[in-house]
């Protein structure tokens, strides 16, 4: 059965172009289009599509408000079309606050000059997100919880901190020195959910790799830093890792970890091999940790398309480090974690809601 798609855009040009891009794919069926957010809400409730493409700037009702309203009634994966600008990054993150699971850059020149490339990316993304949404339609999807902009008030323990007191931590089998997390589609909300629950005195440095354009990683890191107790920044070349700090790989570049004389760790940020599909790449970062921190890392692979991170995770596992993966039910797309699980290297397969507590117990 084809994945049912509702296309929402106030531009007649973009609606027609999206329809053309999707029309030749037998696995996708456009059930209707909408010209504004209000119409999108009405048609989403009536037609119950498997996935929605959503514009942001629209008359009558904008895409962010429409996303919130749709998800208030039913759990449908929503893919945002966004401009690659600073303002576009902000509105995209606002849309993901509202519950959208992913975004695709919206550029007229790409549709006209790189039609085949745009078509491949869009169709693949819609099919992956639509299938996962269809599989999880019978239960509330954890990633449709919106971003919270509130920090836990000083002096009051977080919900996870309270939960952690109920457990006796198991004996440690490894002394972790570094936490590394890799993710792609659905990652922004997954990362926020995990990082927001970690205490300010978290004892390890954290390196983060999220597939995301350069314009977005800086804005994303700033937003995470505002809502989390730990410190979070976009990584810069030469950053020295500190406990209780997280470093997000910049979009369009690669990030590696180097061990310095004396035992501390330093980041290298560089352009990297142009032939690499992912920039940043989870495999590149994970592989560098094998050389700098063999056997002492905890690496977690979260929701995302493809298999980036699997090869690096294999090398980390062989060095003695631990590998965890997000489970299928809580993933927007169970691609990257599925690759790790399929390779037989995941020591734990964990629902998103439990990952932060498991991290706290482990370290």
Walk me through the topology.
Blueprint: E1 3-8, H1 12-23, E2 28-34, H2 37-47, E3 51-54, H3 63-73, E4 78-82, H4 86-97, E5 102-105, H5 108-113, H6 115-135, H7 159-164, E6 178-183, H8 187-195, E7 206-210, H9 214-227, E8 231-234, E9 245-248, E10 254-259, E11 265-270, H10 282-292, E12 297-301, H11 310-319, E13 322-326, H12 336-342, E14 348-350, H13 352-362
Parallel strand pairs: 1-2, 1-3, 3-4, 4-5, 6-7, 6-12, 7-9, 8-9, 12-13, 13-14
Antiparallel strand pairs: 10-11
Helix pairs in contact: 2-3, 3-4, 4-9, 8-13, 10-11
What do you see in this structure?
There is one protein chain. The chain is α/β, with parallel strands linked by helices. It folds into 2 domains: 3-144, Rossmann fold (3-Layer(aba) Sandwich), CATH 3.40.50.2300; 159-362, Rossmann fold (3-Layer(aba) Sandwich), CATH 3.40.50.180. 39% of the residues lie in helices and 19% in strands. It has 13 helices and 14 strands. The protein has a 7-stranded parallel beta sheet with strand order 8-9-7-6-12-13-14, sandwiched between helices. Strand 12 (297-301), helix 11 and strand 13 form a beta-alpha-beta unit. Helix 3 (63-73) packs parallel to helix 4 (86-97) and helix 10 (282-292) runs parallel beside helix 11 (310-319). It starts with a strand and ends with a helix. Residues 138-172 have low confidence and may be disordered.
Features:
14 strands, Rossmann fold, 5-stranded parallel β-sheet, alpha/beta, 2 domains, elongated, 13 helices, about 375 residues, 7-stranded parallel β-sheet
């Amino acid at each position: 059965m084809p994945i049912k798609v509702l296309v929402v855009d106030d531009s007649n040009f973009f609606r027609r172009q999206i329809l053309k891009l999707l029309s030749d794919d037998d696995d996708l069926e456009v059930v209707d289009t909408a010209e504004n957010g209000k119409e999108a809400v009405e048609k989403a409730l009536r037609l119950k599509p498997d996935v929605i493409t959503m514009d942001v700037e629209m008359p009558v009702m904008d895409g962010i408000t429409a996303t919130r309203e749709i998800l208030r009634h039913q759990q449908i994966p929503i893919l945002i079309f966004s401009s690659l600008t600073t303002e576009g990054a902000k509105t995209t993150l606002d849309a993901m606050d509202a519950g959208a699971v992913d975004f695709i850059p919206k550029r007229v020149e790409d549709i006209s000059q790189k039609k085949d490339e745009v078509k491949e990316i869009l169709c693949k993304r819609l099919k992956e997100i639509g299938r996962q949404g269809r599989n999880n339609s019978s239960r509330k999807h954890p990633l449709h919880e919106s971003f919270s902009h509130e920090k836990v008030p000083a002096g009051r323990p977080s919900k996870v901190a309270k939960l952690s007191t109920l457990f006796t931590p198991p004996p440690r089998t490894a002394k972790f020195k570094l936490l590394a997390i890799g993710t792609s589609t659905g990652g922004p909300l997954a990362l926020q959910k995990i990082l927001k629950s970690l205490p300010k005195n978290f004892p390890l440095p954290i390196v983060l790799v999220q597939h995301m354009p350069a314009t977005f990683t800086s804005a994303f890191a700033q937003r995470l830093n505002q809502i989390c107790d730990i410190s979070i920044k976009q990584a810069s070349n030469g950053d020295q890792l500190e406990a209780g700090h997280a470093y997000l790989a910049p979009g369009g570049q690669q990030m590696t970890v180097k061990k310095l004389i004396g035992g501390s760790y330093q980041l290298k940020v560089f352009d990297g091999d142009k032939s690499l599909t992912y920039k940043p790449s989870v495999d590149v970062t994970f592989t560098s940790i094998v050389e700098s921190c063999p056997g002492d890392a905890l690496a977690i692979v979260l929701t995302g398309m493809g298999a980036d991170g699997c090869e690096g995770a294999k090398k980390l596992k062989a060095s003695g480090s631990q590998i965890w993966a997000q489970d299928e039910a809580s993933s927007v797309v169970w691609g990257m974690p599925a690759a790790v699980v399929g390779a037989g290297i995941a020591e734990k397969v964990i629902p998103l809601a439990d990952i932060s507590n498991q991290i706290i117990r482990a370290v």
